[in-house]
Structure formats: structure tokens, C-alpha cells
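Good morning C.,

I know you're traveling, so I'll keep this short. The sequence:
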Amino acid sequence: MATVLKYSHMFRSLSHIYRRPTVLATTPVARYAKRPGMKGKGAMVKKEVGPIVVGDPDVLVMHCVGANIYKEGPDPELKPDSDYPDWLWNLNIGPPKSYKELSPDTRHYWSRLRKLQIWRKNALKKIKPF
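The C-alpha cells, ready to paste straight into the viewer:
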């Protein structure tokens, strides 16, 4: 018994060597620059600049405002209607026609019908059976 007590202090002092090292689960994080719009230190606040609204009726009638592809320079001037092709005036600018209004002889009719059928099939898949 005396020998056990004599060497017990050695086991206590060496126990830290035989323990498993504790590893904390950490996720590696990249230290990138802060995003604009973040709150706090180092945050950059960027004001968004919208398009310039033109209210002059003479400019709106004579120029195609917003069609300039360059950073600087004037907007293109509008030409008389006779200079533009005839199909331009027949374009549908409203909502798309339903498949019932289209002719079954056209490709557009069948593609529209196929799309509606896919939408219907996907909607039926979402319904849970009882």
C-alpha cells in the first residue's frame, strides 16, 4: 500500500501527457474585404444613382431618351414613321396571346400549349394525395 501511495504522485503529474488533446471544431473563414453596404467599421456606403428623368416634352418627342449606349453624348433622334419598317408597327406590346387565340398551324401555338401542359403537370405534382 505504501508503494502505491509513493508512486501515485507520478501518475498524477504524468496524466496530462497521456490525455487526448482537445480539438475545437473550427471552420476556416476567409478574411475578405467587407462588402459595401455592411454596417459597422470599414463599411462603405454607396448611393445608387438612378436614371435621369427627362420632363421636357420637346426632347421626348424628338429624341429616343435612354437609347444612347455610350456614357456621354446625345440620345438618338427619332426619324419620321416612313423611315421605319412596317412590321415595327404591328408588334404585340401587350400581354402574350393565349393558346386559344393562336392558330394551331403555327409553331408558337404548340410551344405555348406544351408550356401550359408542363405548368399544369408541375402544379399537380405539388398536390399531396390523401
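Safe travels,
E.
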